[in-house]
Amino acid sequence: MRAVVQRVSRAKVTVGDRITGSIDHGLLVLLGAGAGDAAVDLAYVVDKIVNLRIFADDAGKMNRSVLDVGGGVLVVSQFTLYGDARQGRRPAFTGALEPVAAKALYEEALVAIRTAGVGRVEAGEFAADMQVELQNDGPVTILLDSRKGF
User: Fold this and answer.
1) 54-61: long-range contacts at Cβ-Cβ below 8 A with a sequence spacing of 24 or more?
2) Residue 116: exposure state from Cβ atoms within 10 A (0-12, 13-18, ≥19)
3) Region 137-143: what's the mean pLDDT?
């Protein structure tokens, strides 16, 4: 699984005129599942998301996690994280997990983040055309890959 984790002051996702999820202080996570991803990949990414020490402590150093600061997590499905643009100009998405299994992993991720202790977990809408608004705090953006490709 791959994730783009952004520390935010606020973030929200809309589908049409409907807000599907919004948070204030916390993390916006763009999450994609790759071919062959399974429970072990999900566990790795969720553990990293909830325990990344990217929030400031009293000394101003990044030593606190979203759990430590009581922040929210907004998770948006993003199969395009598996876009391969190494050849040509149009990305290929053959590395992405097929939609039914990807949706199941996405929904499991939401449950796992809640189970890990995050008080507010919000979501986009799987396979929808979404509008994502955010105010990146820092900016701080971290890339995660359960296969440790980067």
Assistant:
1) 54/5, 54/7, 54/140, 54/142, 55/7
2) middle
3) 97
Q: Which CATH class is domain 2-141?
A: alpha beta
Cβ atoms of 113 and 46 closer than 8 Å? yes
What residues have CB less than 8 Å from 118, skipping those under 6 apart? 50, 66, 67, 71, 72, 73
Q: Is the Cα dihedral 35, 36, 42, 45 positive or negative? A: negative
What pLDDT score was predicted for residue 138?
96
Residues forming the active site: 78-80
Question: What pLDDT sits at residue 127?
Answer: 95
State the pTM of this model.
0.97
Q: How far is Cα 125 from Cα 115, in angstroms, rounded to an integer? A: 20
pLDDT tens for residues 80-95? Answer: 999 999 999 999 999 9
Matching residue, tokens 């759990």: 67
